[in-house]
Amino acid sequence: MAGLDGPRFGPKAGGAPRQLVVLLHGLGADGQDLIGLAPDWAEALPHAAFVAPDAPEACDMGPFGRQWFSLQDRRPAAMASGAAAARAGLDAFLDAELARHGLPGEALALAGFSQGCMMALFTGLRRATAPAAILGYSGALLGADRLAAEIAARPPVLLVHGEADDIVPAQASRLAESALRAAGVPVEALYRPGLAHGIDPAGLAAGLRVLRAAFGLAAAGPGAA
User: Fold this and answer.
1) What kind of fold does domain 8-215 have according to CATH?
2) Which residues contact 181 (CB under 8 A, 6 or more apart)?
3) Residues 25, 30, 161, 165: which is the catalytic one?
4) Has 165 been annotated as catalytic?
5) Which residue out of 91, 95, 178, 197 is catalytically annotated?
6) Which of 19, 55, 83, 106 has its CA 20 to 30 A from that of 63?
7) Does the active-site annotation cover 101?
8) What CA–CA distance (Å, rounded) separates 195 from 112?
9) Domain-by-domain residue ranges, the chain?
10) Catalytic position from the list 114, 138, 161, 173
11) Which segments constitute the Phospholipase/carboxylesterase/thioesterase domain (predicted)?
12) Cα–Cα distance, 70 to 79 (Å, whole number)
């Protein structure tokens, strides 16, 4: 598998970054779909570098975009196997980005939407060094049946899901919330009435709050990060 790459932003303050936020897009999109979150979050995380890698495969469900793994077979075991196969390339990318910036593993946070959420959870919970946080928007926890045997990290997790999501039902995050709690992972969940398959301002604000707390910045003003 060729190495991953994608658009980058920041640090807004200039200089070497103190944190790394990796944004993982959903099925049929690419890194440009989520890197647009970086400028707003960077206002309160001015020393963070943001990167949104393009998934490794061309999407096999349409003429455009990328995928982390195929969803032609949506049986839970097949999707978990797909995430496991994609994890190696994503882990290598995360390690390379941390090394490039001279940052430790705990300076990393993962944020993913839809299939990107599935990858953020699957990969982040198996990292040798726990990420600072995982933000999961409109996704699901794959491989929950083997999580107890494979979990290596228990970072704080934020799950955000729209109650009107007809692509990935909100029940997927409810099941994830339950499984994560059972595995000893600290979880916060936000379910948004009327929200379809997307991210709204409340979800973005919650994500920023969790990121600042995870990076030890909760009590500081934006300019002090």
Assistant:
1) Rossmann fold (3.40.50)
2) 187
3) 165
4) yes
5) 197
6) 83
7) no
8) 17
9) 8-215
10) 114
11) 16-205
12) 8
